[in-house]
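Handout, page 2. Input:
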Amino acid sequence: MKPGRLALLLALPLGIALAAAAGARADEAAIPGVHDAYQARTDYQLKCQGCHRPDASGDDHSNPPMRGIVARFLSVPGGREFIGRVPGVATVDLPDDRLANLVNWTIYRFDRAHVPPGFKPYTAEEIGRLRQNPLRLERAGMRARLVAAFAKTNND
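Output:
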């Protein structure tokens, strides 16, 4: 085989992979409040999916699902604060800017359909303020009250 043809055959799969990755990043680049979707996805893989699972399905016991539900918290009083104060968010070893990036990415990645109109993405400053008062034992009860409030919203 000619050297030029061999180089083309070797380069073609790499080019396709790079184009696919660029396309995926371009789609995710449009997520409000997410300045680095690749970093957010990586942070989710390293810090969240061990408990909430790769697809955010959770287990309905100690690690609640986020898929199809996380953005619904934004539509009930106290829900926005709850997201920033849950133990896995408030105590994770990430700086506030990366955590805001991750939270915003998670909301859109796993529950875009329930993002309320006019949603303002979390900022590093807001996350920093919320995580100073993490939820502990009261988390489960608070979550149950907020989920019950979903039925009173029009954000099905």
